[in-house]
Amino acid sequence: MTPPVLSLDRVHKSFGGITAIEEFSLDLAAGEVVALVGDNGAGKSTLVKMIAGAHKPTSGRILIDGEEVSFADASQSQSKGIQVVYQDLALADSQSVYMNLFLGRELTRGPFRRLDRPRMIRETEKLVEALDVRIPSARSVIRDLSGGQRQGIAIARATHWATKLVLMDEPTAALGVAETAKVEKNIESLRARNLAILIISHSLDQVFRLSDRICVLRRGKQIGIRDTRSTDKNEIVSMITGLAAAA
Ligand SMILES: Nc1ncnc2c1ncn2[C@@H]1O[C@H](COP(=O)(O)OP(=O)(O)OP(=O)(O)O)[C@@H](O)[C@H]1O
C-alpha cells in the first residue's frame, strides 16, 4: 500500500509556556485537498510552518511518503517537493517576476555559471500563461503588480516546484471575487496533477468548494476531521466555536 504523502503523528508544539498545538495527527493522500479551519490563534499557521520546516515540533513525528523527516529549514522541505504559499507571499518585492519564480534556484549557463535570463524568462512566460496569470511581462517588478497578480506569481512558483505537497496559508485572503476564482481553479489543477494540498482558509464557502476533508482546530486542540460531503457549515462552525450547532 502507498503510504500517505504527509503524516502528522501526535505533533505537539509549544513556544516557551504557550501551547500552540496540543496534539495533532493527520494523513494526507496524493490528490487530496484538506482544509484546516479554526479561529484566530487556533494554531493553523504554526502547523503549516512545522510541515514546511520553519518551526520544529516540540514532540511527535512528521512523515513524508512514510519516512520520518526533521527539517532544519524551509529549503530542506522544498527539496522533498513541498511548497508553501503564505499569506504574506514571501516574494522579493524589488525583483522581477522571473527572478522570483527561480529565487534560490536560478538557471545558469556556461562554465562561469552566468544567469540564464532568457531561459528563465521563457519558462516564466510559459508558466504564467498556463496558469492564466495576467501580468505585463515576465520582467515586471513584483512591487508594481496588483495583489491578485502577486498571488498568481506565488502560486505559479509553488506549482512549478512542488512535486508532492502544497501548503496554502489563506491564499485568497486579500483577493477579489474574480481573482479568488482563478486561484481556486489553480488549486484544482494542482489536485489534478496528483499533488496533496493542505489549505488554511477562513472562508467556509471556499472550504466547502475545494476540500475533500475539513480539519478543525480550536485553541491548539484538534477538534475533529470531517468528510466535506458528509458535513455542513453548521457543524463546522460549532466545532470551530465550541458552541452547539444551530437547529
Ligand atoms: N513564534 C511564536 N512565538 C510564540 N508564540 C507563538 C509563535 N507563533 C505562534 N504563537 C502562538 O501560537 C498560537 C497559535 O498561533 P497561530 O499563528 O498558529 O494561529 P492561527 O490559527 O494561524 O491564527 P490566525 O488565523 O490568526 O493566523 C497563538 O497563541 C500564538 O500567539
From TrEMBL:
Signal peptide: none
Record keywords: ATP-binding, Nucleotide-binding, Sugar transport, Transport
Superkingdom in the source lineage: Bacteria
Cited SMART domains: AAA
Residues covered by the ABC transporter domain: 6-244
InterPro entries assigned to the protein according to its UniProt record, in alphabetical order: AAA+_ATPase, ABC_carbohydrate_import_ATPase, ABC_transporter-like_ATP-bd, P-loop_NTPase
PROSITE patterns linked: ABC_TRANSPORTER_2 (PS50893)
GO MF entries: ATP binding
Protein's name in the database: Simple sugar transport system ATP-binding protein
Native source species: Kaistia geumhonensis
Lineage, highest ranks first: Bacteria, Pseudomonadati, Pseudomonadota, Alphaproteobacteria, Hyphomicrobiales
